[in-house]
């Protein structure tokens, strides 16, 4: 059934009432508009710690062409605390860590920093201070919720740098007073620093909701550290700092240059620190310098640093659709992608507690403003608010993948259970392989087989006794590879052709690509993959076969040595076999093939069981090592018993459920509208507005 938002607009209220009263729609009545949630802004987790998704980070470097406003978010709104005219600042949490080194020499500090950066996961940074009237540089490592974790990190830092100065740092401070202006606070901080203490200007909301200024001294990990700081400043009145309320500590970060940039440390309790780029995009260096619309929020979530990007929902889709689908695709395909992506985001809700979605393909790829294309903005604007619904309301998972290999998956093939709107349908995905080079599977005179790029072969016009074409190499040193691919890591050369060396052409294929792909594993590699997936083999691997397939032809069951390989979901077979692009594949086993007898029944055979008889022979003889068979499609392959590799041939890239992006392109090129594309891939759906 195809229903559109426009057709509903022309139905008068009276007519609609009559139709409903007459029960013409029955149980399949279209859901009311109110049943579809509305989303004005979206929160995207750029760095977040969650049980189902982790992207750890401890310090971020943010840039905006128009500077920043910084504040804290409260139930009543954002309290602005600071304005930075400079283009770049750093931000992190006021947490436990390690102060590895303090030195008057920036180059020495940078050398220690470089050593710490070689350690996995945790971040190092350099803080510049004035102490006793001279500049010093402090090298810090890590940011942790617990002192015990910092203590473990300390041992790693000492080992990496050899520093004898390493001590724990932390979120415990003294207050040296509160001041009416930033200038007064800076003057007091400078005075305390002359005594040799670490003193910082701290921004806090005052009773009227405006910015207040304090001076805090020290950054200690325990009460003993605080006591030592107080003892070193007998002439300064110190009170415990109020770290339970919101605050921002402002320091100077000299990690990349001695002059430094502002580095703000946020309170690490329930505080939410807000950063706004004054209308300009915000670049995040730790996200490959991607630039994002909207604002940023920093907090501690599940004990770790979190950075969330909040922006208008429809503007988020500009980036998602541009990240998920190439801007060169037809407008109608891009519209279909926009509706699917919008539906996906709305249906997921606040998936990660403090964020609706992540920026990864775990949810939807979101790569910021730099990926946006003008035609994509047109597609999003043209479908503004439109989502996919069926008779139950907004659909649960409007999934999509790069290409489905010519046939989309049925939900039962991926998850093991049926979903009404995720049925297997034909999909015009061939465009994903368009323009890829031609390769040939060849047999050398030595009996060896492999793949050669068609660029380096010229057909001679001759044929073998079996009717197969003969070709000759166009130059010397031409690689014969195990797969039709120039990637030497996955497809190393097994031989090289001499100039004009003749080969027999067994098969013509397209270079391995996202639509039609090849993988090869020797017996030892395949045994290792199976063992890694928890498969126990009784002896060496002798056979590996697809034992069951679903409606689209995808593998849903695999047997190794006759035993079923157990997985939670059928789609997990991709991971068992080394991360295959899809489950739409066949396995060529070494020395095995299937023949159809005169009675029409298939029978599995091994090369060692085959006997052949030549034209001059009176009796059949056992086949040798160089045995080739030709199928009904006139394709030839080696089934020699000496072959020790499992060749996996497949099509498609992704789970294959729902919309195929390349298929959407193909349908758009056939003249289909975005609603027709969506209704091709999602059974029994239509579009409606939020």
Features of this protein?
14-stranded mixed beta sheet; 690 residues; 7-stranded mixed beta sheet; Alpha-Beta Plaits; 47 strands; alpha+beta; elongated
Write the layout of secondary structure elements.
Layout: H1 5-9, H2 13-22, E1 41-47, E2 49-50, E3 53-54, E4 59-63, E5 68-74, E6 77-84, E7 88-93, E8 96-103, H3 106-117, E9 124-131, E10 134-144, H4 147-161, E11 167-169, E12 172-179, H5 182-194, E13 199-205, E14 211-220, H6 223-231, E15 239-240, E16 248-253, E17 261-266, E18 273-276, E19 282-284, E20 290-292, E21 295-301, E22 304-312, H7 313-324, H8 331-348, E23 357-358, H9 374-382, E24 386-390, E25 393-394, E26 400-401, H10 411-414, E27 438-443, E28 449-453, E29 457-463, E30 469-473, E31 478-481, E32 493-497, E33 502-510, E34 516-522, H11 523-532, E35 544-549, E36 555-560, E37 563-564, H12 573-576, E38 585-588, E39 592-596, E40 602-606, E41 611-612, E42 621-622, E43 628-630, E44 636-638, E45 645-651, E46 659-660, H13 661-669, H14 674-681, E47 686-689
Parallel strand pairs: 1-23, 7-17, 26-46
Antiparallel strand pairs: 1-22, 2-3, 4-7, 4-19, 5-6, 5-18, 8-10, 8-11, 9-10, 9-16, 12-14, 12-15, 13-14, 13-16, 16-17, 18-21, 19-20, 21-22, 24-25, 24-47, 27-28, 27-33, 29-30, 30-33, 31-32, 34-45, 35-36, 36-37, 38-45, 39-40, 41-42, 43-44
GO cellular component, one term: outer membrane-bounded periplasmic space
Protein name: SpoIID/LytB domain protein
Organism: Paenibacillus chitinolyticus
